[in-house]
Amino acid sequence: MNDNNARRVVSVIVVNEASVLSRITDLFSGRGYNITSLTVAPIPESKYSRLTIVTSGSVRVIEQITKQLHKLIPVLRVYEHEDMVEKEMALVKFPISENLSDINALCEAYNGKIVNVGENVVIVMVADEPKRVDNFLNAVKRYNPKEIVRSGAVALER
Amino acid sequence: MQISGAQMVIEALIAEGVDTVFGYPGGAIMNVYDEIYKQDKFRHILTRHEQAAVHAAEGYSKASAKVGVAMITSGPGFTNAVTGLADAYMDSIPLVVISGQVPMSLIGTDAFQEIDAVGISRPCTKHNYLVTDAADLPRVLKEAFYIARTGRPGPVHVDIPKDVTAQIAEFNYDVKMNLETYKPHTNGNPRQIKKAMEAIANSKRPVFYLGGGIINSNAADEVRELVHKTGIPAVETFMARGTLPYDDELLIGMLGMHGSYAANMAMSETDMVIALGARFDDRVTGKLSEFAKNAAVIHVDIDPASISKLVNANYPIVGDIKNVVNDMLAQSSIIDPQNYEQWRETIINFNELHPLTYYEDSDRLKPQWVIERVGELLGDDANISTDVGQHQMWTAQFYPFSRPRQFISSGGLGTMGFGFPAAIGVKAATPDKTSINFTGDGSILMNCQELMTAVEKKLPVINIILNNNFLGMVRQWQTLFYDKRHSETDLSVQPDFVKLSEAFGGIGYRVKTKEEFDAALKDAVEKNIVAFIEVIVERFENVLPMVPSGGSLFNMMLLEKKENK
After folding, report:
1. ipTM of the predicted structure?
2. Interface list for B 104-163 with A (CB within 8 A)
């Protein structure tokens, strides 16, 4: 994990208030850090929200990112994850004419299933580690996916 | 107490003990200005440009150690003020800047004089607020002052829509400041301080690297004591000038791009850097990989993000300089000043080899002479502001600063046009001191409209314009690094600075000799009105020593030695 562009996952707990998200994203763009993915949602029964940011950089860069994030007034806590459970969801749309039983079998291998069936398309959902979501998306290429959406990763320290 | 949002602003300023507000009215802030008209608890100084209002608030804050306050309207009023916000952010100056905004119902409609002010100020403030309900105003204003002055100080921007300033709500300023997400560490880790002190005791060639954080923390007295108890020589950054008095035998000098030979050599040869409230800026370090190459680093700073940002700290200590230095003082007996005898000797030799000096080898006055002369004549009685450029570096090099907060200049952002309005703020804060602004023929034109403010409010700033008919610092780089192609830096065409000052009701002098200069300065101090003293100086004088951008500190361009001074 020591190379200069290693993947890092950072969780940030922030006060759920106006413009807090732009404070975070402005910090990343202003200081030249990279955001691979970002998810955000309120923490139930609290005034806080939790962001999960996937980024990359050297140990020094990631140390600066966590310190700079912490400097923002509405930020309560910043974790850089080391030992975490990490999941990401993807929704994929296939033509209904594709081999649905094959698709369904693949989905099941990645904690997923068919979630919607329309006149011309089916929509499937998978939820797994981001790397495994990559694998799934590779595997289903042959079934001509029409649209793919990924949620970005969420993570919890073990 | 049920009052309007505009009244709340006034009440909050009074509760914070604000005695001076710098500003410029306009449509969206008119409700607040109406309340300013009705009160007599603080004075309002009308600058002639919003940028100048913020710089004046910065000068006021730096001279007084209080939070500076500026007030402006929406749209162009606010965008004009942005340079001031950015300047204060870079130099960690505590400000509260209040701007008007279009009414809530018009936000997002591209209304007249509407701009996304908090969107613009976000990257150049410590924090900012768009207040959408007058009920939030007391808390927001109290937080703004609290955040501005605590931790690493900085500017806080509060944007208030016009209808919110008219809205009536409950005002209670007795809110306890306990921000769950903002708790600056002010006390250093005792174990870490102990380890650092032991490391200093074991070092052979330690150097104190003193930064602007000492001034912000009002810790110059403690630092002076620590330096003298330990007998360890010290270099100052530009921002720390005045921490040690100019004639202190342990002060090596200023380091960095235009630092003295001895300071830069000491930094290159040291085995222990003790950084107090300094941030290893590129103008200080030169080439990072060569900076204090053989030294361990102790880094004390209130901002954890400053530590190990550029240079890895072996002993990171997060805390307020004053507290940490007091803890260090308590343990200073383990350090024997005699151990550094030889090291101090070495530094004296550096200083003798290449002292900070200049030669009077021109028909015209040398700018350095002018600065030294003001120092001789006014010394401690003057507060010194500067603009940005050659004159600024010469002031930092040659003025005999004897106390913290005597030197007020734009360090991090390097804002031309800062000096004059800042000097107005300085004069407002410290009326008993002469307020000098050293400036150049380039910089002074960037806020010369402030002559009007200084005349109207009787804030007699003396502007000493070191006129070389050049944008001197850029010209110097062009001479040295662009094969003398002086692109757009020749300022041969100029206003009549004497008449310019007189047109506003100030006084003006044009001087070419030492005698004329002495007479002009004496006259300006006596007349006690705003002055321009234009000094015709040598056109091609360079600021030396100089570490070329990105070069190593020990590779300095030095003054060529001549026979007589």
Report:
1. 0.91
2. 118-119, 122-123, 126-127, 130, 132, 147
